[in-house]
Amino acid sequence: MEYLRIQGGRRLAGRVRVDGSKNAALPLLAAALLTDQPITLHNVPALTDIKNMLSLLRELGVEVIGESGTVTLRSVDENQVHTRYEIVRSMRASINVLGPMLARRRRAVIAMPGGCAFGERPIDLHLRGMQALGASISLESGDMSVTAPQLKGATIFLGGPNGSTVLGTANVMCAATLAKGTTIIECAACEPEVVDLAHMLIKMGAKIRGAGSARIVIEGVESLGGAEYTVMPDRIVAGTYAVAAAVTNGDVIIDDFPIDCMLAVIDRFQHIGVIVEQLDPYQDTMHATVRVTSTRLLKPTQITTQPHPGFPTDLQAQFMTLLCFAHGNSVITEKIYAERFLHVAELTRMGANLQRFGPTVVVSGGTQLKGAPVMASDLRASASLVLAGLAAEGVTTISQIEYLDRGYHRLESTLNALGASIERLTGEAIVETVAGSGAQMLESKSARTPSPTLSLARG
Ligand code: EPU
After folding, report:
1. Is residue 448 predicted with pLDDT exceeding 50?
2. In the annotation, is 324 catalytic?
3. Distance in Å, CA 293 to ligand 1 centroid
4. Residue 23 CA, closest ligand 1 atom number
5. Within this chain, do residues 54 and 129 fall inside the same structural domain, yes or no?
6. N or C terminus of the chain: which is more exposed, having fewer CB within 10 Å?
7. Where does a domain end: 230, 252, 287?
């Protein structure tokens, strides 16, 4: 069992590059099911979720070369249509294979995904989309069997109680590429990861317009070919690095920062007093180089998570940590996943002053956080705890870091190269209180896993 031990209080400085996006890469990998020609993806991040998706694709008859960086996929056995519960349970994003499989193989049998750590995660909109395209759906022993001898274009409204659905839009868009006739997705998700997928599908021969807006129009084609494509940088990882710089009063240069799709985040940074400066104004805004510094006195603010281009739910937890250091009361309202607050209790263990009222948390900032043993409980909550540990006084230990590894590749190595002091340890951690000082110290009989260091230019 691995855990992180963070010695807090170090200022971060230096230079870091953002990896390829997990949430863009997952549907791009699944899109390999839409053709029998090779798909080559570059900039695929080395993450557990990617590994899981590649295993799933292998089970579905796809030959895979490479695990991260450059990955080539070729669908060779189109008789495989079953996605097992064990896989769907470990990764909800397995639902990504539904649209591509149905489009090309005419059938998909997918275990019904359950909820996740932060609440119910329905797929009714995905299924509504498939039905509108002519699929019939039945449920047997927890498996959904979705069949369509010939998909037909349709007008589909994908709005739900909390806006559109990102993976639902990706699924319907993929299915519609090979449907007969024209499909209009109304109330489509505008997230940049949907745009990235549309760009690759177009390279494969699909006819799609409007991706990135609330109306996407797809004209079905007979077949799709192979393509080579580079995954966009991860906007959530970029935002997490920027918060790391801000909470440590640091000075960090971040390359491959997709500023173009982070305007709501930049807006909140500016409001709080964190300066995100694009170094070369003529650079491609999806691959910008920015410098992040912060003013001495951070200001409180209000944040409401929303579908893109609003503030992303996937950065809510990290900003809660940041706002613990702002002087005054901030208000965070979660509008996508009302229960996505697993980090609140753990941050409170570190001395954060947080009060939750349903989907809203009031952050009374300005008190110094203190290191403590805490537990990761979902991907973004884990990231917020790492950030809190960086800025806290003393030692923080974070257990269950397998959640963190789902979306951040060796986050501790990247942060150490910027001056943090984080160790990845294995075994049982023993927490001791140092008599008299009140400070907590972690004594471990465990093995230390050396964190590979990156070579970074100092900024
Ligand atoms: N929803 C429905 N019905 C559906 C689908 C969704 O009511 O059929 C609701 C959800 O309950 C939620 C809202 O619609 O309230 C949005 O959910 P969405 O379907 O857009 O989420 P998703 O596509 O399953 C992706 C990301 C999430 C990210 C959300 C929102 C991937 C693999 N996952 O999930 O990422 O939070 O979009 O932006 O792309 C993460 O990376 O930590 C993560 C959870």
Report:
1. no
2. no
3. 31
4. 39
5. yes
6. N
7. 230
From 116, 174, 187, 190, active-site residue? 116
The count of structural domains within the chain is: 2
What is the rounded CA–CA span in Å between residue 144 and residue 137? 7
**Contact at 8 Å (CB) between 189 and 158?**
yes
In 3-state terms the chain splits into helix, strand, coil percentages (rounded to 5) of 30, 30, 35
Torsion of CA 296, 18, 414, 310, to 10 degrees: 50
3-state secondary structure of 44: strand
Q: Would you state the structure tokens that stand for residue 92, as one six-digit string?
A: 């909800």
| 66 CB near ligand 1 (under 6 Å) | no
Cis preceding-peptide flag for 309 (omega within 30 of 0): yes
Give the CATH number, domain containing residue 201.
3.65.10.10
Q: Is there a single domain that holds both residue 10 and residue 126? A: no
CA of residue 415 to ligand 1 center, whole Å? 28
Residues 247 and 216 in one domain: no
Instruction: Encode pLDDT of 7-19 as tens digits.
Output: 999 999 999 999 9
Pocket flag, ligand 1, residue 125 (CB < 6 Å): yes
**Beta carbon of 235 within 6 Å of any ligand 1 atom:** no
List of residues 6+ apart from 203 with CB closer than 8 A: 227, 228, 229
Last residue of a domain, one of 212, 230, 248: 230
* Atom from ligand 1 closest to the CA of residue 95: 24
Domain of residue 304 covers: 2-19+233-456
Phi, psi of 36 (to 5 degrees): -100, 10
Instruction: Give the model confidence (pLDDT) of 101-120 as tens digits.
Output: 999 999 999 988 766 677 77
